[in-house]
Amino acid sequence: MVCYNGAMFAHAHIALNAHLLSGTASYRSAGIHRYLYNTLAFLPDVDPDLAYTLFVGRGDIPPSQRWTVQRSRFSTDSPVARIAWEQVVAPLEFARIDPDLVHGMAFATPLLWRRPCVVTIFDLSFLRYPERLSVGRRLYLRTITRISAHQARRVIAISKSGKSEIGMLLGIQEGKIDVAYPGVMPDFSPLPASRIAEFRRRRQLPERFILYVGTIEPRKNLDTLLRAYKQLPDRQNIKLILAGGRGWQAEILDALIEDLDLTQDVCITGYVDNQELPLWYNAAEIFVYPSVYEGFGMPVLEAMACGLSVIVSDTSSLPEITGSHGLLVAPTDTQAWSYALTRMLAEPDLQAELSKRGQKHIQDFTWQNTARETVAAYHRALGDG
User: Is 34 within a domain?
Assistant: First the structure.
């Protein structure tokens, strides 16, 4: 049952804007896409008294008998088209179905929609690193995200770090902000040695390698990682693989790899399909994530679930995810990164201990819990009056 303005509703109707679900396999279908898809996969089972209308573009959606699906008549893959849908078409669509609550699942709700809303804000990188975006997109996100957060009944963050940042940078009372951590799917787990050996042969992988998974862009701080890797005393015996799609200013990293004379030691794979990711994690020796800013950092969770020991930056949400179950390093301290890499590679007992602790730690991060926290935000929004 849902309480709304003091009344009890047996079947509240939720409209979900999920237009950021990707319809194509690329680095843009990582991160937010996976959060949306996996949350949606478990959402219908949390509360049978909630009905959903799901608004999407071309994106894949989880199968469910509980959805009413409304696909856009025009492609919303481009930011401009998606903004047009969010601010012009969406209010008309919502008025037509008359929902009890609208959930803007990625940063925005329509300015013209003044009825109860919830909005999810994944990070504030457009405030922290505005140079990553065009002027138009930066201004849109700065303006619309702030207004959406203030107009919404509830705001959903994906980490406690994100909750604090939303409160500080957007001026939102933290009591209005809920946290719905991402989960990790069962596919991310230690795999049989025979399967990993076959994957190594098929991909012609080196016997030992350090793995990074994520978009190739400056915010991920891969230049520090490359310089630290360059200093490893036994670098010839272990390679570095950067698995992820090429993002903004990736060419800068290409030039640095050449300048450091690492072209024979560093491999950039390009986008890796989600179904193949567990194999990459299982084949690696250690996992590294030197990013200077993350709303959450799902690859860290996935790597720990696959049994990898991890080294991550001690900034934003990353210590929150890792806890004491990995090595934390100042993001731009090249010497500290080199030392952490050298230590982890030289101490199998440390790797084993962090692996064991990490696998236990991630058991609380499930998509069922993500969906439950999301529905809890709906109940709070409908009960606020």
Answer: yes
How many other C-beta atoms are found inside a 10 Å radius of the C-beta of residue 199?
17
Same domain for 355 and 267: yes
| Residue type present at position 64 | S
d(CA 299, CA 301): 5
| Cβ atoms of residues 44 and 66 within 8 Å | yes
**Whole-prediction pTM:** 0.89
Would residue 188 count as lying in a domain?
no
Q: Are residues 338 and 274 in the same domain?
A: yes
- What range does the domain containing 266 cover? 193-364
Amino acid at 329: V
CA distances from 157 to 46, 122, 225, 237, 317 (A): 19, 6, 28, 41, 11
The domain total for the chain is 2
Higher pLDDT, 35 or 129: 35
Please say whether the beta carbons of 297 and 211 come within 8 A: no
Same domain, 170 and 228: no
In this structure, what CATH number is given to the domain that contains residue 129?
3.40.50.2000
User: Could you tell me if 318 and 285 lie in one domain?
Assistant: yes
Residue 258 CA to its chain's centroid (Å): 30
Please tell me whether residues 6 and 60 are part of one structural domain.
yes
> Cα-atom radius of gyration of the chain, to the nearest Å?
22
Q: Which of 181, 85, 104, 179 is nearest to 147 (CA)?
A: 104
Cβ atoms of 180 and 156 closer than 8 Å: yes
Strands (E), 151-235: 154-157, 177-179, 209-213
Using alpha carbons only, give the angle 105, 60, 376 rounded to the nearest 5 degrees.
35
Same domain, 76 and 160: yes
Q: Measure the CA–CA gap between 14 and 31, rounded to whole angstroms.
A: 24
Using alpha carbons only, give the angle 190, 21, 60 rounded to the nearest 5 degrees: 75
The tokens describing 195, both together, are 């399967």
> What pLDDT digit, counting tens, does each position of 235-280 carry?
888 999 999 888 777 788 888 889 999 999 999 998 888 889 999 9
Phi then psi for 264, rounded to 5 degrees?
Answer: -90, -10
Residue 172 CA to residue 204 CA, distance in Å, equals 50
Residues 345 and 219 occupy one common structural domain? yes
Same domain, 178 and 39: yes
Q: What angle do CA 97, 44, 382 make, to 5 degrees?
A: 55
**Is pLDDT of 131 > 80?**
no
